[in-house]
Design brief:
This protein is α/β, with parallel strands linked by helices and about 400 residues long. It has 2 domains: about 130 residues, Aspartate Aminotransferase, domain 1 (Alpha-Beta Complex); about 240 residues, Type I PLP-dependent aspartate aminotransferase-like (Major domain) (Aspartate Aminotransferase, domain 2), CATH 3.40.640.10. The protein has 14 helices and 14 strands. The strands form 4 sheets. It has a 7-stranded mixed β-sheet, sandwiched between helices. Strands 10-14-13 form a 3-stranded antiparallel β-sheet. It has a two-stranded parallel sheet with strand order 1-12.
Length: about 400
């Protein structure tokens, strides 16, 4: 009997996620035959020796007995109340627990909130480079991702006038990733205020991905987008994965603020989708109150002398000493986005470089074109390894680029 092939959805042809794609699979194959691979492709703190704060683990353990039943589709109430208080401490006053939805990480909530928003052909303005889930989730929910450029020569900052020029009658939302993944850029108040006024002028939803909100360096100020958006709806996304080093707990949240009186139907749609998946992982939610209300250990990690600060400095030093690399200094997040000097390496291809670096130097990075940019000159690395490992990585990168020149 001849079987017809099982065809995937056509929508997947436009979806990319090289962070865990072909190169990551090849790295796994190399590991199986005995090679040690330095993996810089993903921001996964637990793989680099970072531990979730003990108080969070204890809070989860102590509430396991209350975790065996489904909870409310929006999440357990003490966790949502803690998120409200956290928002109030950041200056966002017009929210209650009813405007908070807890999900299985920000990834699920990105998909869920876009699904509730989009009709086929609707447009979402997404930064380029972006965290590719935003583009993928837009496409998979029938929308069109329209990328607004955040160029290297502008320190990866968006130009608000350019953003506004891309708005059409099908535009529904503007995505703002700040601090930015993959570039590490942190946006200034003036730029964020301009984006807020644009969204208000055109009645667009602001979708503010702020999961790296406490990971900033050099006294860089982080401005919560929700403090600037008043006359349109703002969705703020965050979670336990990065700042609190609890990726495996799969706890994220979205908080709706701003002008929500005309958003009842949309918010009811979000709640319907939340109910359809019953609820988010319950045990991890019990760690939220302790996380947000307790000692913020991330401050030590990003301060001078802290491990993340030292690792970031090793990246800055590695790029500065390279004959081939240039780097816009990352002032936030746990990533850097180096590029090559095209005058020195005019034929550089980011994907081929990432493949060669893996095969010959046993280092896994993510090629820059995976982040929806039109150029092939950059790559992303995480700042999570210790500084000694990062120095070794840049030594191997320089050796490979020397080989390219020869």
């Amino acid at each position: 009997m001849t079987h017809s092939p099982v065809r995937p959805s056509d929508s997947l042809s436009e979806v990319r996620y090289e962070i865990r794609g072909e190169l990551a699979k090849r790295a796994h194959e190399l590991e199986k035959v005995g090679y040690e691979i330095i993996k810089l492709n993903i921001g996964n703190p637990g793989r680099f020796g970072f531990r979730t704060p003990e108080t969070m683990r204890l809070a989860m353990i102590e509430n396991l007995g209350a975790s065996e039943a489904y909870c409310d589709q929006k999440g357990v109430f003490p966790a949502r109340e803690a998120i409200v208080m956290h928002q109030q401490n950041r200056g966002v006053m017009n929210v209650t627990a009813e405007e908070v939805f807890i999900g299985n990480g920000v990834s699920e909530l990105t998909d869920l909130t876009l699904r509730a928003l989009l009709n086929p052909g609707d447009e979402v303005l997404v930064p380029s480079p972006d965290y590719p889930l935003w583009t993928a989730a837009t496409i998979l929910n029938g929308g069109i991702a329209v990328h607004y450029p955040c160029r290297p020569d502008n320190k990866f900052m968006p130009d608000p006038e350019e953003v506004e020029s891309l708005i059409t009658n099908r535009t529904r939302a503007i995505v703002v990733i700040n601090p930015n993944n993959p570039t590490g850029a942190v946006y200034d108040r003036e730029r964020l205020e301009a984006l807020a006024r644009i969204a208000e002028k055109h009645s667009l939803l602001i979708m503010a991905d702020e999961i790296y909100d406490q990971m900033t360096y050099d006294q860089t100020e982080f401005i919560p987008m929700a403090t600037l958006v008043h006359d349109t709806l703002c969705a703020t996304y965050s979670g336990l994965s990065k700042v609190y080093r609890a990726c495996g707990y799969r706890v994220g949240w979205v908080v709706f603020s701003g002008e929500n009186q005309h958003a009842d139907d949309y918010l009811n749609g979000v709640e319907l989708l939340a109910a359809l998946r019953l609820c988010a992982n319950v045990p991890g939610q019990w760690a939220v109150q302790t996380a947000l209300g307790g000692f913020q250990s991330v401050n030590e990690l990003v301060s001078p002398g802290g491990r993340l600060h030292r690792s970031r400095q090793a990246i800055l030093d590695g790029a500065a000493s390279s004959k081939y690399l240039e780097l816009v200094k990352p002032t936030g997040s746990m990533f850097a986005f180096p590029g090559v000097k095209t005058a020195t390496l005019p034929k550089f291809d980011d994907h081929q470089f990432a493949l060669d670096l893996l095969e010959h130097k046993h280092v896994l990075v993510v090629p820059g074109n995976s982040f929806n940019v039109p150029y092939r000159t950059h790559f992303r690395i995480t700042t999570l390894p210790d500084d000694e490992t990062i120095r070794e990585v840049f030594k191997r990168i320089e050796e490979l680029l020397d080989d390219y020149c020869q």
